[in-house]
Amino acid sequence: MFEEYPDLLTPNHLSEITGMTAHYIRKMCRNGDLPAVQVGKARWYVPKCRFIEYVMGGADEN
After folding, report:
1. What is the pTM of this model?
2. pLDDT > 50? residue 62
3. Which terminus of the chain has fewer CB atoms gathered within 10 Å of its CB, N or C?
4. C-alpha torsion 39→30→44→15, nearest 10
5. Helices 11-18 and 22-31 sit at what angle, rounded to 10 degrees?
């Protein structure tokens, strides 16, 4: 699933996948709604495996 994407998804990747804006994806990352890691002050990454878990309904199982 999502083989064409790298292991660390950016808000732009997630925007392509979901149709949501990259701005909204960043907001979800900041709020903790997506399983993301922040690098520096502005860069967000979502591990692809965690995003797949999130989409499949397993995001609450940490």
Report:
1. 0.84
2. no
3. C
4. -170
5. 110
Structure token pair of residue 6 = 């790298």
Type of residue numbered 16: E
pLDDT digits (tens, 9 = 90+) for 5-60: 999 999 999 999 999 999 999 999 999 999 999 999 989 999 999 999 998 986 55
Angle, vertex CA 5, rays to CA 39 and CA 22, nearest 5: 55
Contact predicate 53/59, CB 8 Å: yes
Task: Tally Cβ neighbours within 10 Å of residue 60.
Answer: 7
Tokens linked to 43? 């860069």
Token couple for 62? 């940490």
